[in-house]
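Is this the right way to post structure tokens for a design question? Let me know if I should format differently. Anyway, here goes:
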């Protein structure tokens, strides 16, 4: 018990962390996403302190992308794993806290990180975290009890419940924010997501002082989409929108931003891409959509799309840049549709 922490020292540590938590939550100048990440880091440290662990990580269940990833970790960087895998996935699937004090003989333990870093994991506690509806949305993982005796399923879960409860509230708020930036039908980001990404990512690329960089975008919409709805019904129209969105997803780079702009209109933002390269990307997508078939119930529905491409001009507002692309899209429509206009 040489590493055991006295109750007075533990209480002082908890007060110090919760005071920092209060300061972060009360700071009106903090960006919401950055603020949440700081809060997660503090909550992770709080949980580690409560159960006297060497390391800890807070995991978010990204159901949209079917993965689990650490939003904060003490002693390790960000790790992403498929949902349902590892001890974290097991705890969420089985809706219960899990303790193992012999992880290398546990079939659900992934030792890859230890093999890469040389770290030795002796004990693990995983506690699933739920929202106010009782839906599990994340998990807390503590590693290596510092007193050397391993985690106790009853006592350490009781101690960790304070951090898990606050984490659940914070993660639920984070999920609300994420949902507000996504289109429910296609699961692509929406206009709110576009403006958030533009400010945080693409505008910074355009204003990079170390090297000259460019960003292009194209706006596009489905040709004669009203006819699809009128002929086959709105459920078929929804299926076509999801079909198109999936092709956008699989034919875009990880760094590209793909957004449902509204109705049957979509925007794709391509960082470090000039207008010629963006036009080529748009045309590849045009051909892909044209050659694909949307299967809905017993129907096979084919559609085409028209595209307007522009390279972002920093002397103009983002709204004016989008207007430039939109004017080219209008020309594509006027010129016969199913084409790309630069």
């Amino acid at each position: 018990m040489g590493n055991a922490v006295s109750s007075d020292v533990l209480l002082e540590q908890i007060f110090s962390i919760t005071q920092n938590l209060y300061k972060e939550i009360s700071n009106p100048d903090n960006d919401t996403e950055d603020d949440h990440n700081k809060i997660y880091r503090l909550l992770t440290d709080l949980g580690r302190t409560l159960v006297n662990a060497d390391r800890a990580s807070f995991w978010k269940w990204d159901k949209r992308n079917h993965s689990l990833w650490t939003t904060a970790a003490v002693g390790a960087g960000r790790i992403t794993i498929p949902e349902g895998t590892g001890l974290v996935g097991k705890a969420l699937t089985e809706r219960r806290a899990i303790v193992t004090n012999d992880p290398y003989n546990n079939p659900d333990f992934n030792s890859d990180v230890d093999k890469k870093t040389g770290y030795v994991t002796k004990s693990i506690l995983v506690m699933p975290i739920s929202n106010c509806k009782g839906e599990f949305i994340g998990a807390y993982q503590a590693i290596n009890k510092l007193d050397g005796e391993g985690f106790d399923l009853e006592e350490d879960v009781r101690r960790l419940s304070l951090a898990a409860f606050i984490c659940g509230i914070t993660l639920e708020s984070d999920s609300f924010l994420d949902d507000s930036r996504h289109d429910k039908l296609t699961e692509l980001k929406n206009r709110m997501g576009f403006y958030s990404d533009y400010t945080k990512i693409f505008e910074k690329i355009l204003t990079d002082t170390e090297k000259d960089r460019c960003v292009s975008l194209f706006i596009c919409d489905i040709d004669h989409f009203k006819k699809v709805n009128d002929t086959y019904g709105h459920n078929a129209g929804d299926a076509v929108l999801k079909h198109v969105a999936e092709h956008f997803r699989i034919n875009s780079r990880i760094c590209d931003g793909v957004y449902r702009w509204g109705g049957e209109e979509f925007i794709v933002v391509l960082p470090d891409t000039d207008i010629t390269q963006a036009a080529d990307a748009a045309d590849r997508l045009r051909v892909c959509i044209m050659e694909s078939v949307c299967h809905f119930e017993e129907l096979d529905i084919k559609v085409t799309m028209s595209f307007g491409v522009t390279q972002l001009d920093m002397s103009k507002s983002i709204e004016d840049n989008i207007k430039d692309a939109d004017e080219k899209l209008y020309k594509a429509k006027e010129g016969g549709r199913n084409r790309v206009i630069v």
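Format looks fine. Someone answered above. Worth noting: The mean pLDDT is 88. The chain has two domains: 7-178, 191-341.
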